[in-house]
Amino acid sequence: MRIEVRDLGYIYSEGMPFESVALEGVSFTVESGEFAAVIGHTGSGKSTLLMHLNGLMKPTHGRVLADGVDINEKTKEAREARRKVGLVFQYPEYQLFEETVLKDVCFGPKNYGFSPEECEAKAVEALKLVGIDPDVKGPVSPFELSGGEKRRVAIAGVLAMEPQVLILDEPTAGLDPKGHKDILDMVCRIHRERGLTILLVSHNMDDAARLADRILVLDKGHLAMDGTPKEVFSRREELHAIGLSAPSSSELLALLKEKGLNVRTDIFDEDEAADEIVKALR
């Protein structure tokens, strides 16, 4: 599914003494099957933007189109378009509530009117997709799971509704390094196997550079940069000026170059960076 954002703007408490402009003139297009990362300093408008992409918030001005359909129109086509955009909030495990894992993942399809058999089939498939064995964990209370497992189950609950677009707001927040890696590996596998359009919000520049085809940089509600990881992260000084950094490998290479080592600075993969340093030292 193709997502188009056209001149999007949103004002909190519009007309009130404490009104605040959260988004202003944001325009971009994410093509079907693309993996885009959204980065920005705290308060830059990332979460506000995400909630506009499936109609949870209505813009003060501008439009959001899903495959050409304005998702904020009061039509059957708009409702169907919104259903195809799945949003996973930060700490989604806080929304688990059913007595078993399987029932929790069935909740979304059940609300869409599917039969109990169809709901279970969709839930089983979604659990398998996120690496949870439905036979082992399906009958278990979600509150007995580990933190990483709870998050996988919460993501499965969104996948069970069979979205064409998956939006993830800091999906690894609060997880240990292994949980962090496992969740991102799972997201990559889902992208590869399902061909979903994915938008990932992250504060981790290494993750954004490694995973995304495209980087969108928000600054104070404006779209400051839009391009490939190489295009965006090569603008280190501009990123620093808005409180962001380049991936750690690129920052290290830039520091070594300043110290006189003849290395490239447009490398964002840790292994490639190590090879570049070894090459320069020889």
Secondary structure: elements and pairs:
Blueprint: E1 3-12, E2 20-30, E3 35-40, H1 46-52, E4 61-66, E5 69-70, H2 76-83, E6 85-88, H3 101-111, H4 116-129, H5 134-137, H6 147-159, E7 165-169, H7 177-194, E8 197-201, H8 205-211, E9 214-219, E10 222-227, H9 229-233, H10 236-241, H11 248-258, H12 270-281
Parallel strand pairs: 3-8, 3-9, 6-7, 7-8
Antiparallel strand pairs: 1-2, 1-4, 4-5, 9-10
Explain what you see.
It is a single chain. The strands form 2 sheets. This protein has a 6-stranded mixed β-sheet with strand order 6-7-8-3-9-10, sandwiched between helices. The radius of gyration is 20 Å and the shape is globular. The protein has helices at 46-52, 76-83, 101-111, 116-129, 134-137, 147-159, 177-194, 205-211, 229-233, 236-241, 248-258, 270-281, and strands at residues 3-12, 20-30, 35-40, 61-66, 69-70, 85-88, 165-169, 197-201, 214-219, 222-227. Helix 3 (101-111) crosses helix 4 (116-129), helix 4 packs across helix 6 and helix 6 packs parallel to helix 7 (177-194). The protein has 12 helices and 10 strands. The protein is α/β, with parallel strands linked by helices and 282 residues long.
